[in-house]
Amino acid sequence: MRPSILTLLSILLIPALACNTALARKPIRTLIVTGQNNHNWKVSHLVIKDILENSGLFSADIAVSPAEGEEMSDFTPDFASYRLVVVDYNGDSWPQETMTRFEQYARAGGGILIYHAADNSFPDWTEYNKICGLGGWGGRNEAAGPYAYWHNGELIRDFSPGSGGSHGRRHEYMLTARTSDHPVIKGLPNRWVHAPDELYDRMRGPAQINALLYTAWSDTITGGSGREEPLMFTVEYGKARIFHTMLGHCGPAYDDNPAMQCTGFQVTLLRGAEWAATGKVTQQIPKDFPTSTHITYRYDYKENK
Ligand code: ZN
């Protein structure tokens, strides 16, 4: 049977239309910095790259540092040529030139996404800790800045002494919004359940939190702090737009990675990434976002359309 004219037309036109849609928006150039971590960075950075690129909004390059203890002096990523830098790194100090470049990138208005254990890194680098807002472990204590937690309707900064950074056992938990008009979370549910993950608690740092987006209750029953902990927020630093998410502990494998396979993690990461890069969020609220009673997953790191 000969193909009809309509079939021929659709074969010719559909790819052309798809191509036009793709061209309508230039992907946001992103650099993911990785290479050392007490976490499974070999999986996490690929997952982040896929989440970003599968959305059609981003194109991501990877900067892999030398391994722990190896010569670092040639590790000098060109942050300035990217609109977004995702930090998935927790390890040896960067060379002075790289630290300076990163600070300049931030001050000049760069977009930065601090992901999970990146806020464990560099306990002695003052400017980096300002960029993260809150950090943990690495010997952090009251010298790092106050604890920060939500109590009686406000973010408390608590200067009492003690170590910074802890978490109980992994479990499902509820995220509660603490603002409704920030572009990252506008239109998302005020409460949604997150897949089993670590719940960082007793974090401390300079705490120049700009918009507190979501907190979660860290229950002592699960080994937590008994406080409502800030887990997702933006940070005030120069002209930078900084989105910090403490969610997303990486699992053992790409396809065995519940905290990162959670739709809530992925959607907030995508929205935070776009806001950090551009100051706006153009993404629609997806139909598969979790609710206050149901966790949802994107096992292949793509929206299920
Ligand atoms: Zn972790």
Characterization of the model:
It is a single chain. The chain has a nine-stranded mixed β-sheet with strand order 2-1-3-4-13-12-11-8-9. Strands 5-6 form a two-stranded antiparallel ribbon. A two-stranded antiparallel ribbon has the order 7-10. With 305 residues, the chain is an alpha/beta fold. The chain has one domain: Class I glutamine amidotransferase (GATase) domain (Rossmann fold), CATH 3.40.50.880. Helix content is 24%, strand content 25%. The mean pLDDT is 94. The relative contact order is 0.15. Bound molecules: zinc ion. The site of zinc ion has 5 residues, from loops.
Query: In CATH, what is the homologous superfamily?
Result: Class I glutamine amidotransferase (GATase) domain
How are helices and strands ordered from N to C?
HEHEEHEHEEEEEEEEEHH
Question: How many strands, what sense, and barrel or not for the largest sheet?
Answer: 9 strands, mixed
Q: How many strand units?
A: 13
Enumerate the spans where pLDDT stays under 50 for 5 or more consecutive residues: none
Helix content: 10-25%
Report how far apart the termini are.
Answer: 33 Å
Mean pLDDT: 94
Rg is 20 Å
Which class do the helix and strand fractions yield?
alpha/beta
The portion of residues forming beta strands comes to: 15-25%
Q: Which ligands does the model contain, each kind named once?
A: zinc ion
- Annotation field: number of helices: 6
Instruction: Please give the CATH architecture.
Output: 3-Layer(aba) Sandwich
Specify the overall morphology.
globular
CATH class equals Alpha Beta
Annotated CATH topology: Rossmann fold
Spatial strand sequence of the major β-sheet: 2-1-3-4-13-12-11-8-9
Number of domains: 1
